[in-house]
Design goal:
single chain; about 325 residues; alpha+beta; eight-stranded mixed sheet; 10 helices; 12 strands; globular; binds iron/sulfur cluster
């Protein structure tokens, strides 16, 4: 089935009647995910600088109110329905990774689960990749998003519409009057996009990384790091958080907010001991978590190759360079 582009606004308005719609709109020309107001033109030319992670895992969120005198605790949860439109294949895979961490690790995070149950994903396959995209090196494809409820593929004047789940079927029923049979004519390259940028993520990378835990390369790789945490905050798969409390006498509110393992006080314990006292240990932990520990635990890599940290790191640190060095490939002495 396909959706003609001149029917896109109608399709989005139908979605908006059933849930909040979040899609990329232009912010000075750069696409940014925003709650759609029913008017703004979707900006679908490139992926967003920030992933839509906070739809499931907000930067800060209230968890529960408490009263120490009465012993009352009331959980605060958000169960609004949300549809994210125009999410790219790498960011769809990142949600699958977050599912492992929040839902499948032996503990179910109720805050995440409520948001996840209410979320529908309508992915847009990529027709071109950015300078720093390397998703195909990480086992993904820019052309498909099997974990999305719906995948759209740009065919020039229309999008092909493929439903993967029951939530996706619901959308195709909602769009029934707008969908037509595929014409078979594709005026735009689609389905054959590859990333120019590559990383040598061979299948033995997790074991190789663990084996080089004490390698002096970590000093060299981490030398320029500023400890700013930007790489964690823009990463679609980073999920560390800190829990705090706001007290007002006997009552208060507990909240959580994003944290970063690249911050110097992240792993400091009561008493002052810090098992990761320098940036060498912190960067090593970040890369080992992304590229080794998560794989060994869940069988998938925690890096989806979106390239955001490569693009935005103020010190030009590059996760693909670490992969290359470990895999004894190109740029090993860079
Ligand atoms: S963005 Fe770069 S400089 Fe900042 S913490 Fe991450 S690796 Fe270090
Ligand atoms: S580590 Fe970097 S390239 Fe990998 S998913 Fe996170 S931001 Fe994207």
């Amino acid at each position: 089935m396909e959706l003609k582009k001149d029917k896109l606004t109608e399709a989005l308005l139908l979605l908006r009647g059933a849930s909040n719609v979040i899609l990329p709109v232009s912010n000075d020309g750069a696409p940014v995910f925003k709650l759609w107001d029913g008017v703004a033109e979707p900006c679908l030319s490139a992926n967003t600088s920030l992933p839509p992670k906070d739809l499931l895992f907000p930067r800060s969120e209230k968890m529960y109110d408490y009263n120490v005198k009465t012993g009352n605790i009331s959980e605060i949860s958000s169960n609004k329905k949300q549809t994210v439109f125009g999410i790219r294949p790498c960011d769809v895979r990142s949600i699958e990774n977050l599912d492992h961490a929040f839902l499948e690790s032996g503990y179910t995070d109720s805050y995440y689960k409520t948001r996840r149950d209410g979320l529908t994903t309508i992915a847009l396959a990529c027709t071109e990749t950015a300078r720093t995209c390397f998703c195909d090196s990480m086992g993904l494809s820019p052309n498909d998003a099997p974990g999305a409820d719906i995948v759209l593929n740009d065919r020039g004047d229309a999008y092909t519409v493929k439903s993967n789940t029951e939530k996706g079927e619901e959308i195709t029923r909602l769009w029934k009057s707008l969908l037509s049979k595929e014409t078979g004519k594709a005026s735009k390259a689609s389905g054959s996009v590859v990333c120019d940028f590559k990383a040598r993520a061979d299948k033995d990378l997790p074991e190789k990384l663990v084996a080089r835990f004490d390698d002096p390369m970590w000093d060299k790789l981490s030398k320029a790091c500023l400890g700013c945490g930007c790489c964690s905050f823009i990463c679609p798969t980073c999920y560390c958080f800190d829990i705090g409390r706001e007290n007002h006498g006997a009552s208060g509110t507990a909240f959580r907010c994003w944290d970063s393992c690249m911050f110097s006080d992240y792993s400091r314990m009561a008493g002052g001991h810090d098992p990761r006292p320098s940036k060498k240990e912190r960067l090593r932990n970040r890369y080992l978590h992304k590229l080794a520990y998560f794989n060994l635990r869940y069988g998938v890599t925690l890096c989806v190759g979106c390239g955001r940290c490569v693009d935005k790191c103020p010190a030009n640190l590059d996760v693909t360079r670490a992969m290359d060095i470990i895999s004894e490939g190109v740029r090993a002495d860079g």
